[in-house]
Amino acid sequence: MPQLDKVFKVARLFDTYGQLLTERQRSLVELHYLHDLSLGEIAESEGITRQAVHDHITRAEEALEGYETKLRLLEQDTAVGNSLRRASMLVRAVEEDLTRAIGLLDEAGSADGGSVCPEASDSGDAADIVSVLKSAATTTEKLSALIEKLSTT
Description:
The chain is built from six helices and no strands. It is 81% helix and 0% strand. 17% of the residues are buried. It is mainly alpha-helical and 153 residues long. The chain folds into two domains: 68 residues, Winged helix-like DNA-binding domain superfamily/Winged helix DNA-binding domain (Arc Repressor Mutant, subunit A); 78 residues.
């Protein structure tokens, strides 16, 4: 049975580049990696030697690796996925900062009889509000830069 890391890697390569393999290579890779058949089981069902199965699968793996070396689609996909996860984290951070700022504004408004103007409340509250809003602005700038980077990928 192939090692799990290798299975995962070949499966990702196969999903991306499988259509570029010959029909025979595609079929044998599917049987071995996706259906978890041994080389001997495949050889018996296909009426070929175990060595022939091994050779076809090895050539298919080399071809898949070669396509990735030249095209880098998985590498780019991984980079985009990482960027999207980072963007999602930044969006959540902005939402948290803005929620916190709103809460501080509400508290400041309650303390001074209903005004939500930071200047009308305690200077500490105003400083807290300004700090949270600056943090939200910084996070938003980072998010904008990341989105710009993603749009050019």
